[in-house]
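Good morning N.,

You mentioned wanting to compare the apo and holo forms, so I went ahead and generated the holo version with ISE. This is what I fed in:
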Amino acid sequence: GDLRVAVLGVGVMGQDHARRLSTRTAGARLVAVSDVDAARTRAVADEFGVRAVHDPFAAITDPDVDAVVIATPGFAHEEQVLACLEHGVPVLCEKPLTTSAETSLRIVRAERELGQQLVQVGFMRRFDAEYQQLRALVASGELGRPLFLHCIHRNASIPPHFTSEMLVLDSVVHEVDAARYLLGEEITAVTVLRPRASSEAPEGLQDPQFVLLETAGGALVDVEVFVNARYGYEVRTELVAERGTAQIGLGVDLVRRSAAGWGGSIPRDFRERFGAAYDTEVQRWVDAVRRGTVDGPSAWDGYAAAAVCAAGVESLRTGRRVEVDLS
Ligand code: ISE
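and this is what came out, ligand included:
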């Protein structure tokens, strides 16, 4: 029968996954939702005609739930993923896997002891066609060795609870995973620079930030992260290699001329820009879980990214370059 899925955390992303599982994912059925906000749980449960379960751990251990999608805030992930492992429940956990290297490593080890892979991490860019093409181009060796990745990560706005650390932990984490995925190398050091803050950003928020990642092979990855860019959501990457460059995320598939002007449109947020990638991610997760496997970024990938981002948070605080050591 269909995979019966519960979604934990039904904020923007959780609701998006709930809708996807209810309407677009084959072989799966949304059966329950859970959130700390009881009114929101009720409203989303009613919208999709599923059960509202207040306690996330009750949803994880529910015999009528086969698998779980975690879309709660990052700080809640560790306990929830460990509970999934303890009860043998396959889990697609939104990024970040956790908010520190130690806690993510705990998950890697718990899964290893279990001897069965149950954790997939929600790095959806790996399912985006442009990222896949760029990775294939790098792997082909056609352009020679990669020298730089220049990354731009802009959000129109962020929710009120977003902190300066979360620019690293929640936003830059995507660039960290993308760099590992595209280059096939680990990140060995991080430096976070703090330019003047935008007056459009909430008081006290260090936005934008400029992040420099160094890879094991000596390539450099720079990231402009700017989460109150106001005009829209834009994620772009340029690869510079020995014999050429390549860009993704230009979003120029349609150029219109009208009303004495010309141009295209810019996505409002990540649901629009990466909608197809999320669809593929969840479909392949469901298909894999039904076969008893995982088909996407693993707990180890979640740990590697978490370790780099934890070093990034330290660099944000101290202003210094921080090295990363994976266990
Ligand atoms: C958000 O949490 C995401 O995961 C988005 O993909 C990312 O682009 C955004 O910056 C984050 O706020």
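Residues 53 and 59 are 6 Å apart (CA to CA).

Happy to go through it together on a call whenever suits you.

Best,
F.
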